[in-house]
Structures are given as structure tokens and as C-alpha cells.
From TrEMBL, chain B:
Organism: Caldovatus aquaticus
Nucleotide-binding in keyword set: yes
Record keyword Repeat present: no
Pfam families: ABC_tran (PF00005)
Domain ABC transporter: 18-250
Stated family: Belongs to the ABC transporter superfamily.
SUPFAM superfamilies per the UniProt record, alphabetical: P-loop containing nucleoside triphosphate hydrolases (SSF52540)
Protein name as annotated: ABC transporter ATP-binding protein
Gene3D superfamilies (alphabetical): P-loop containing nucleotide triphosphate hydrolases
UniProt keyword terms in alphabetical order: Amino-acid transport, ATP-binding, Nucleotide-binding, Transport
A GO molecular function held by the record: ATP binding
SMART domains assigned: AAA (SM00382)
Length: 284, 251
């Protein structure tokens, strides 16, 4: 096989791993709370700034900055739920989308005020690794492995803990949950914290690959939503698989044509999927 | 968490008397219950029978706090249940098997049981109670890793009762456990209810299948259009000509 095509395929899988985390977070919150966090990519952006600030300005070691980013964005997720989502739980969906969409612009605006529109870079890069005939970016490979570990940890949490099992149960039947001794309000809070943690995790993986600026969310936010819808909104496994499919389309499209064209191909593929399987590729 | 619930959690919940008096409730403009008085003492098995739409399910929903009464008092031992959040009832020793079972079809049998043991007071007893549920319902043990949605109707009812037992209740509320089941399976379900109450559980069971339920309970109330129309021991109700005509299909 053409080594450059092989490289594109490998990069597609690595990219898919990074898409997977925000997709899982967004799907989790939507499946449980039934509200779409339109500002999800901007939570990731704030997390990226947090890592950048702690590492380059405050002089923290990078692992410590990463470790602080997770609870920080988790707390933002809880705040978002308490201040914006919870008061609108019974409101029409359009109001919920407009409200979280408003938070998107607020976060972009605050980031611009505080950090200006300059592109900020961590300036860390791991050396590329040669695997067989293919050169792989060490940073991307590390981010991919971390994303897989994060997804596995999420799966274990949902599969093996009381709270995780209740989270999966409530996505299907809200009203019956109090009879099980489950307080739905608490489950929504925990889910929002987990959704925020996943955004923080994604921020750690993206900040080593992308420069941070207030509008960086636009470079992965729209595709994150597309992947969620493609996999079937609220369907965790479908979203996970669709993330890799989208990663491959973008990466191989970029190899055959160029990066801009690859996103065009990805959107065309998305539109085709919406015509053929509006319920999502992996809906049962 | 209320102080009452906190106190109840310090020890295993004690059996207590459930007492409803003058309960009125409804949905919006529609009133379903018009002043219901009802009492269930520890160790009793009590039935509420009546036609479809009489308010039987509403009555259980009021007891477990899913619907708040508009008037009347609702007490369980020393607790005013109208002041307790519904999710705190398992800690007080009350479990509710809802109408249509309401299992989580996409979770396995064992995961359904785990959700039933969610209350903090119940988690420590998970393995022991699961094994007890499996000994009561051996079919569930065979199917523990199967998705609950793939069980037969009778197995789903067993799983729903098992899930309620996971919280270690002293009072079990059962809503139409025989609904939608084949006659032979109905027999099995009622045999299980009898076994559960022989183990000392207090049972309040709502049923349309009057003939069957009167064989299991000590006493029953007849609920008609939101009011208690008659009450008495199972034997007395089964012998009552009006009941026999309306509910037992006898003339």
C-alpha cells in the first residue's frame, strides 16, 4: 500500500480517538439531561486556555496543569447545569438550544477580553515515531492512547458503578427513577460533571495539537455535533464508532485532495447519511 | 435529606403502619381520588380492587410521592410521607413495583437489580439480596446477564418484583402484577406474592384480577370512581353478592 495513504489512515484513526471524547461527553449529557450543550466546544476551549495559562504563565508542570484542567472544566459543567440548564429543563428545546448557544458566545467573548485573539501555543511536541514504514506524530499517538484510556474509564464507570448504572437507566425512564431511590436532580448534576470532565480531558489532548484562540472551538465543535448526530444522538457506542469514521474521512480526504476539501467531503457524507438514515448510522 | 430519613437510615427501617385519611388527588382539572381512607398494618397483606380507571394506580402513586395529594393526610409510622421526597422512600423501607413493571429493557437483569439497590442503605446488602432474589426466582438467575427487554412477560414481572426487593423493603406496593400475563403465569406471580408475605413483608396490592387477589390478601378495599365503595376481609368480600356480581363474574 502507498505509505502516504497508510499514514493518512493511521492519522485518521488517531484523529477519531480525539473526536471521540467530546462526542461521548455531548452524547452523555444529551442522553441523560435531554439538553444539547451547544457550547460544548467552548468548554473545551476554556480548558485549553486553563492548561496554557497554568503551564506557560504560572509555570506549573504540564501533568499538573492537565490534572487541574479536569476538575476545573467539570466545575464549569456543573455551573452550566445549575445556572442555565436546570431552570430551562421544562422549557421548549429551542429555548434550551438558544440558552446554551448564548453561553457559547459569552465564553468566546470573555476569552477574547481576557486573552485577546492571539494564537497561544504550549510549544511542546513529542518526537515523531517510525512504525513500520509510517511516521506517526508522538504527540498524536499519545493523545490517541489517552483518549482510549478516557473512553475505557467512562465505560467502566457507566457499566460497573451504582451511579453509572443509574445514569444509563435514567436515559430510558426518568419518572420511575425515584422509586429506585434515585434523585434525578443529583444524577443530572453528576452527569454534567462527567460531561465537563470529558470536555476538560479533550482540552488536554487538543491543546498539545492546536494553538488556542477564542474561536478554536469552531475547528472541532461543528464536526463533533455532526458525529453525534451521525452516530445517533444519545447513542454512546454509535458516536464512538462515528468518531473514527469521521476521523478517517477527514484524514484520507486530506490525503487525496487537501484539508479544506476533506471537510467538504465530511459534510457531504454527513448530509448523505442524514438523507439515507436520519436516525443515525448506528441506530438500532 | 430530612432528619426523619436520616434517623431511619441509622438502623434497618422498622415495619410501620401506613395510614391514609381523606386523600384527594388528581391530574390538573381531573380529580381521581375523592377522600380515600386506607390503613395497612405491619405484616398485613391488603388488596385494593376495582374497575379500570377507579384510581387504583393513582392511589399508589400518591403513596410513593410521585403524585402529591391535594388534601388529606398520608402517614407511615411517624413519618408524614407528603413531606418526604419520593427517592427517600426506599430508605424508609417502602418499595413500589409500578404499573407495567417499568424495567430498564436495555440493561441486564442483574443491572436492573443493581438500580433497585441504589439507595445508600441498600448497597451494602447487594450480593446477599441478589442471591435471595435469585433463589426466589431461579429463572432470573439463569438470565442474569440477559437484557431485561428480552425476558418473557412473567419473567419481567419477577424481575420488577426482584428489583423492588433489592432495597430491603418492609412494605411492598404492587401495581397490577397480573396485567398482561397468561393465566398460568398469573398463578405463579400470586404464588410468589404469597411467599413474599410469608417472609414477613407487608404487602399492598392493587389488582383488577379480583378472584386471584382475594386468595392472597387478608383484607381488601373496593375502589370505585375514586371512592372506597366497600371494605372487609377477603372471605367477606368474596361472599358479598354485589362483589360477586360486579367483579367475580358470578350471578
Amino acid at each position: 500500500m502507498d505509505p502516504f495513504l497508510l499514514e493518512a489512515l493511521v492519522n485518521g484513526v488517531l484523529l477519531g480517538g480525539v473526536f471521540a471524547l467530546p462526542v461521548l461527553g455531548l452524547n452523555l449529557v444529551f442522553g441523560v439531561v435531554d439538553v444539547i450543550w451547544l457550547c460544548y466546544a467552548e468548554l473545551v476551549m476554556v480548558g485549553m486556555y486553563a492548561v496554557w495559562f497554568l503551564y506557560t504563565q504560572a509555570g506549573w508542570p504540564l501533568p499538573l496543569a492537565f490534572a487541574a484542567c479536569l476538575p476545573f472544566v467539570a466545575a464549569l459543567g456543573v455551573l452550566l447545569h445549575v445556572l442555565v440548564v436546570r431552570p430551562l429543563l421544562r422549557a421548549p428545546p429551542i429555548n434550551q438550544v438558544l440558552a446554551t448557544g448564548g453561553v457559547l458566545f459569552v465564553l468566546q467573548g470573555v476569552a477574547t477580553l481576557v486573552f485577546s485573539t492571539d494564537f497561544r501555543s504550549l510549544g511542546v511536541e513529542m518526537p515523531p515515531m517510525e512504525v513500520g514504514e509510517v511516521f506517526v506524530s508522538g504527540t498524536k499517538l499519545a493523545a490517541f492512547l489517552a483518549a482510549l484510556a478516557g473512553a475505557a474509564a467512562l465505560w467502566a464507570f457507566l457499566k460497573f458503578t451504582y451511579v453509572g448504572t443509574a445514569i444509563r437507566a435514567i436515559a430510558r425512564d426518568r419518572e420511575v427513577m425515584p422509586l429506585m431511590g434515585v434523585d434525578p436532580r443529583r444524577i443530572y448534576l453528576i452527569t454534567s460533571a462527567v460531561g465537563g470532565t470529558l470536555a476538560g480531558f479533550a482540552a488536554c489532548l487538543l491543546v498539545v495539537q492546536l494553538d488556542v484562540h477564542p474561536f478554536v472551538g469552531l475547528s472541532f465543535g461543528p464536526i463533533t455535533f455532526m458525529i453525534c448526530v451521525m452516530g445517533g444522538l444519545g447513542n454512546m457506542l454509535g458516536g464512538f464508532l462515528a468518531a473514527f469514521l469521521m476521523g478517517l474521512i477527514v484524514s484520507v480526504g486530506g490525503f487525496w485532495w487537501n484539508t479544506e476539501m476533506s471537510y467538504v467531503v465530511a459534510f457531504v457524507f454527513f448530509i448523505a447519511v442524514m438523507f439515507l438514515r436520519p436516525q443515525g448510522l448506528f441506530a438500532r | 435529606m430530612s432528619a426523619a430519613v436520616a434517623a431511619a437510615r441509622s438502623a434497618a427501617p422498622a415495619a410501620a403502619t401506613l395510614e391514609l385519611s381523606g386523600i384527594r388527588a388528581g391530574y390538573g382539572d381531573f380529580q381521581a381520588l375523592f377522600g380515600v381512607d386506607l390503613r395497612v398494618a405491619p405484616g398485613e397483606a391488603v388488596g385494593v380492587v376495582g374497575p379500570n380507571g377507579a384510581g387504583k394506580t393513582t392511589l399508589l402513586r400518591v403513596i410513593s410521592g410521585l403524585l402529591r395529594p391535594t388534601a388529606g393526610t398520608l402517614r407511615y409510622g411517624g413519618h408524614d410521607l407528603t413531606a418526604v421526597a419520593p427517592h427517600e422512600l426506599p430508605a424508609l423501607g417502602i418499595a413500589h413495583v409500578p404499573e407495567n413493571r417499568r424495567l430498564f429493557p436495555h440493561l441486564t437483569v442483574e443491572e436492573n437489580l443493581r438500580v433497585g439497590a441504589y439507595a445508600r442503605t441498600a448497597r451494602a446488602h447487594f450480593a446477599e439480596r441478589r442471591d435471595r432474589v435469585f433463589s426466589l426466582f431461579p429463572r432470573l438467575a439463569e438470565r442474569r446477564h440477559q437484557l431485561a427487554g428480552t425476558l418473557s412477560g412473567g419473567e419481567q414481572q419477577m424481575c420488577a418484583i426482584g428489583r423492588a426487593l433489592m432495597s430491603g423493603p418492609r412494605l411492598l406496593l404492587l401495581d397490577e402484577p397480573s396485567a398482561g400475563l397468561a393465566p398460568i403465569v398469573v398463578q405463579q406471580v400470586f404464588a410468589l406474592v404469597r411467599r413474599i408475605r410469608e417472609e414477613g413483608l407487608t404487602v399492598l396490592i392493587v389488582e383488577q384480577n379480583v378472584a386471584q387477589v382475594l386468595r392472597v390478601v387478608d383484607r381488601a378495599y373496593v375502589l370505585e370512581t375514586g371512592r372506597i365503595a366497600a371494605a372487609g376481609s377477603s372471605a367477606a368480600l368474596a361472599a358479598d353478592p354485589a362483589i360477586r356480581r360486579s367483579y367475580l363474574g358470578m350471578h
